[in-house]
Amino acid sequence: MSDPTAVRLKASHTLTVTETALVFLEDARRRGDVCEPLDWIPEVHHPIGSSEAVIPDALLYYRRGPADGDSGSTLRTFVEVDRATWAPSVSPPS
């Protein structure tokens, strides 16, 4: 990227996504659930067919239930962090 504004926005967004991951990790530990640092995978490409794909800010794996047992359900979800920096009529850069 050569545009200083684009670089600043990208760096700021990356920091916000990382801070979001830390909140998930801290909350999981507080609840006794399982969510490890490698359960947060940023910007994973997911094909959805017809040569289209979605790239969320992160993919999160989270296991609800006791951290020391085998019980509990594993959740997998896309995470998109919106900082309201784009007007609805403006497409973000690719």
Let me know the number of strands: 5
Q: Helicity, in percent?
A: 25-40%
Distance between the termini: 11 Å
Report the major sheet. Answer: 3 strands, antiparallel
Please trace the helix and strand order, writing H or E for each element: HEEEEE
Strand content: 25-35%
Categorize the overall geometry.
Answer: globular
**Spatial sequence of strands, sheet with the most strands:** 1-4-5
SS-based class: alpha+beta
Number of helices: 1
Low-confidence segments, given as residue ranges, are none
State Rg.
16 Å
Topology:
Layout: H1 4-31, E1 40-42, E2 46-49, E3 52-54, E4 58-64, E5 73-79
Antiparallel strand pairs: 1-4, 2-3, 4-5
What does this molecule look like?
The protein has 94 residues and is of the alpha+beta class. It is built from one helix and five strands; from the N terminus they run H-E-E-E-E-E. The chain has one helix spanning 4-31; strands at 40-42, 46-49, 52-54, 58-64, 73-79. The strands form two sheets. Strands 1-4-5 form a three-stranded antiparallel sheet, covered by helices on one side. Strands 2-3 form a two-stranded antiparallel sheet. It is globular, with a radius of gyration of 16 Å. The chain starts with a helix and ends in a 15-residue tail after the last strand.
